[in-house]
Design a protein that fits this description.
279 residues; 9 strands; globular; Naphthalene 1,2-dioxygenase Alpha Subunit, Chain A, domain 1; alpha+beta; 9 helices
Length: 279
């Protein structure tokens, strides 16, 4: 080495890490704000609501999707598609758009969480009163895959939380998971699922989480549609004729909403993305 070589001028890139709710976050960028500032107060509150005890990993799975990573991130920010696309949700009394709920979006738009509340005791009556077209007489021979308890005591049965640019924290009934999105090309992305339990879980709760894990995941009864619909959309976009594929819903704002039938969280994602891209 030359005499003027200084090892301190050639160090590896430093990874800044922070922990919140038992989850570890990292960034190589020196100018990224501290974690809770990045998340914003609403999303921080949503994360800590779910991750309120020491967690442990129950299992992992990975799937490859035939679409750009941004289409999947749009999907998890789209609060009203679930009861339209996922017939299993409505048929088996898990989620419907008329359930009370809302959307919280951080100031920059990139992070959000949506939630839906369910009266566990009255869910059958609520579904029948709503007269949903997708509701049917179909039932499961083994209900254990959907049987759940209100473990948080707030009647929130579904919470989907996203952290820009590629992380999702889900609570669907009693199945808890972190999803990490990794771009693998213009038309391919990889989704890593980390299914979680908590150290305070008893044997019955662990079994419940494992069974409900069949709802959400690469081959889940609910989310298998999400694994292919992005590819359908991406193939259709190449035939887009001067913006005719764009349908606006709810205006241009990316603000929090006291209901879920909104594209505000999707607009928030693009607001943040365009700001970073200086577009």
């Amino acid at each position: 080495m030359p005499a003027d070589f200084r090892k301190e001028d050639h160090t590896l890139a430093r990874l800044r890490v922070a922990e919140l709710g038992g989850l570890v976050f990292g960034t190589f960028h020196p100018d990224t704000p501290d974690l809770q500032t990045w998340l914003g107060p609403d999303v921080t509150r949503g994360l800590l609501r779910v991750m309120n005890r020491p967690p442990h990993v129950l299992g992992r799975s990975t799937q490859v999707m035939p679409n750009n990573w941004k289409l999947y991130f749009e999907n998890v920010k789209d609060t009203y598609h679930a009861s339209i696309l996922h017939l299993f949700l409505t048929t088996f009394r898990i989620n419907r758009l008329t359930m009370p709920g809302g959307i919280y979006i951080d100031r920059n738009g990139g992070n959000h969480y949506s939630y839906a509340k369910l009266d566990y005791a009255a869910e059958d009556a609520e579904y029948k009163a709503a007269k949903l077209r997708s509701d049917s007489d179909m039932r499961l021979n083994d209900n254990s895959v959907v049987e759940s308890v209100d473990e948080y005591g707030d009647s929130v049965s579904v919470q989907i939380l996203t952290i820009f640019p590629g992380m999702v924290l889900q609570q669907v009934r009693n199945t808890i998971a972190v999803r990490v999105i990794r771009p693998r090309g213009v038309d391919k992305s990889e989704l890593d699922w980390i299914h979680l339990g908590f150290d305070t879980d008893d044997e019955a709760m662990t079994e419940r989480r494992l069974r409900q894990g069949n709802l959400i995941g690469a081959a889940g009864y609910i989310s298998m549609e999400d694994g292919c619909v992005g590819g359908f959309v991406q193939r259709a976009l190449q035939y887009n004729d001067e913006g005719s594929g764009l349908v606006m819903m709810g205006g241009h704002d990316a603000e929090s909403q006291p209901f879920r039938a909104s594209e505000a969280a999707i607009r928030g994602f693009w607001k943040h993305y365009r700001a970073l891209m200086d577009a």
